[in-house]
Specification:
3 domains, Glycerol-3-phosphate (1)-acyltransferase, 18 strands, alpha/beta, 7-stranded antiparallel beta sheet, 7-stranded mixed beta sheet, globular, PH-domain like, 27% helix
Length: 418
C-alpha cells in the first residue's frame, strides 16, 4: 500500500543534506552574499566536523542563507516548521536537505528524537529558538526551555546573530530590498553560563531591533513596491483617532481613512510622524501592544471576535498557494478564559476550546495574513477576513502573560505593564 505524504515526511531517516542539496544551497548563498551586501564577522569558526548546535535569531524568511554562509563548508540539518514540509515549492528541497520537521510552539517528541539522533551522529543542527521569523523587525522571547535542551548534549553551541535581514525581506510583503545585512558568529561560552540561565542569556545575546539599528547605520534601501506598502498589516491602529484597521500603506505613505492622518516611510526606513509620537516603526507597534495590555487588564469582559476560514493539512497532497486545505469556516474568539473556534470542519459542526495553559502564543504566516497553531499534534491554520493577525497574536500572548505567564516577556519591556 502506498504511503501517505504524512507518513513519508514523518518517517524520513535522519541524514546529512545530500551533496546536490549542499551544492545548490552554497551556490545560492554566494549569489545572495553579493546581491544583498552581506557582511560576515566570524569570531569563532563553526567546525567542519563533530556534533554542534547552531542557534540563530530568526528575522526573515531567508535566514537559512545567512546561517549557511556563516557555517562555510559545513553541512547543516535545519529544524523547520512541520507544515512547511507540505508546501509544494519546498517539499523536494526539504527532502534533499534532510530538514527536521518541528511543530511550532508545541512539544514535539518526534522532533526531539530526530534532533538527538542527528547530534549523536555528529551532525550540525541549526535551530531558531524563537520558532518563527520576526513580525516587525524585533526579536521575540525564545521558546522556554530551549537553553536547557541544547545544553544537555554537552556539545559546542554557536550563535549566529543576523541584523538587517527583516529590513531586506519585510514580512508584510514580498518585496526584496537591498541595503545591508550583518552576520556575526561566535561560540557560546557554556563554561560561564549555567543551563538554568541560558534562556535569559540567549534572549540578551539575540536582542535585536532592526529599526533602531537602522537609525544608527542610516543605510539606503532600494525597493520596488514602495517603502510603506502593506505596513498597515502591522501598523493597524491610527495614532491620531485611535481607530483600528482604518490605515492603508501604499508607496511611501500610510493613510487613515477615518481621520485623514498620514505618515511617511522613506528609503532609509525613516518614519515621518506628524504627531511626533513615534521615532520609528517598532515604536508604533510597541504602542499598539501597550494599548492591548491596558485594555485586557482593565476589562474583565474583554472579547475579540473575527470570522475565519479554517485550513488543515492534507495527508495525501502538498499545497501550492495556501497554507493548507480549506476544510471549514467559523468564528474565532479570544477572551480571558482562552481561545475558541466555533464553526465547521469537513462539513460537520466543530468547536475548539483552548485555555492559556494549552496555548501561549501562535504563529503568523508570511505577509501577516493569517495565523496558525498546533494542538494535540494537529495543525490549525486560520485566515481572518481582515488583516488582524498581529493583533490576535499580541492579545493571546498578553492574555497568557496575565493568567499563566508560561512565556514571559523581555525584562526591557516591563514598563508596558505599569
Amino acid at each position: 500500500m502506498k504511503r501517505t505524504l504524512t507518513e513519508r515526511i514523518e518517517n524520513r531517516r535522519v541524514k546529512q543534506p545530500s551533496f546536490l542539496a549542499q551544492l545548490i544551497l552554497k551556490t545560492y548563498a554566494k549569489i545572495m552574499k553579493k546581491k544583498l551586501h552581506i557582511n560576515l564577522n566570524i569570531i569563532d569558526q563553526i567546525p567542519k566536523k563533530g556534533p554542534c548546535f547552531i542557534l540563530f535569531n530568526h528575522m526573515s524568511r531567508l535566514d537559512f542563507v545567512f546561517v549557511t554562509l556563516a557555517a562555510k563548508s559545513r553541512r547543516i540539518n535545519f529544524v523547520a516548521a512541520y507544515h512547511e514540509h507540505y508546501r509544494k515549492k519546498y517539499y523536494l528541497a526539504f527532502k534533499m536537505a534532510h530538514t527536521i520537521p518541528k511543530h511550532n510552539y508545541s512539544t514535539d517528541l518526534k522532533a526531539i528524537s530526530n534532533i538527538r539522533e542527528a547530534i549523536n551522529k555528529g551532525y550540525a543542527v541549526a535551530i531558531a529558538p524563537e520558532a518563527r521569523n520576526s513580525n516587525y523587525g524585533c526579536t521575540s522571547p525564545i521558546v522556554k526551555g530551549t537553553g536547557k535542551f541544547v545544553a544537555q548534549f554537552n556539545v559546542p553551541i554557536y550563535l549566529v546573530k543576523i541584523t538587517g535581514s527583516y529590513l531586506t525581506f519585510p514580512k508584510v510583503c514580498s518585496d526584496i530590498r537591498r541595503g545591508k545585512i550583518d552576520v556575526t558568529v561566535k561560540r557560546l561560552p557554556l563554561e560561564t553560563v549555567k543551563a538554568d540561565n541560558l534562556d535569559n542569556y540567549l534572549n540578551e545575546e539575540f536582542r535585536t531591533n532592526e529599526f533602531e539599528w537602522q537609525n544608527k547605520e542610516h543605510t539606503k534601501w532600494s525597493h520596488k513596491m514602495g517603502m510603506a506598502t502593506d505596513f498597515d498589516f502591522i501598523l493597524y491602529q491610527c495614532p491620531k483617532c485611535h481607530q483600528e484597521f482604518t490605515l492603508k500603506g501604499k508607496d511611501d505613505t500610510i493613510t487613515c481613512s477615518h481621520c485623514g492622518y498620514q505618515a511617511k516611510i522613506d528609503e532609509y526606513y525613516t518614519l515621518t510622524d506628524p504627531l511626533n509620537k513615534f521615532t520609528d516603526i517598532s515604536k508604533w507597534v510597541r504602542w499598539e501592544k501597550g494599548n492591548i495590555i491596558k485594555d485586557i487588564r482593565k476589562n474583565k469582559n474583554y472579547l475579540f471576535q473575527v470570522p475565519v476560514t479554517l485550513e488543515t493539512l492534507d495527508k495525501y497532497h502538498t499545497y501550492k498557494t495556501s497554507m493548507g486545505k480549506v476544510c471549514g469556516s467559523g468564528t474565532f474568539t479570544i477572551n480571558h478564559f482562552g481561545i475558541r473556534y466555533d464553526g465547521d470542519k469537513g462539513g460537520l459542526p466543530f468547536q475548539l476550546n483552548l485555555s492559556y495553559k494549552d496555548i501561549w502564543t501562535i504563529g503568523i504566516t508570511q505577509n501577516i495574513r493569517s495565523i496558525f497553531f498546533y494542538y494535540n499534534n494537529e495543525y490549525y491554520h486560520l485566515v481572518p477576513n481582515y488583516h488582524c493577525a498581529l493583533k490576535i497574536k499580541m492579545i493571546i500572548e498578553e492574555m497568557q502573560r496575565l493568567h499563566e505567564n508560561i512565556w514571559p516577556n523581555f525584562p526591557w519591556e516591563e514598563d508596558l505593564y505599569h
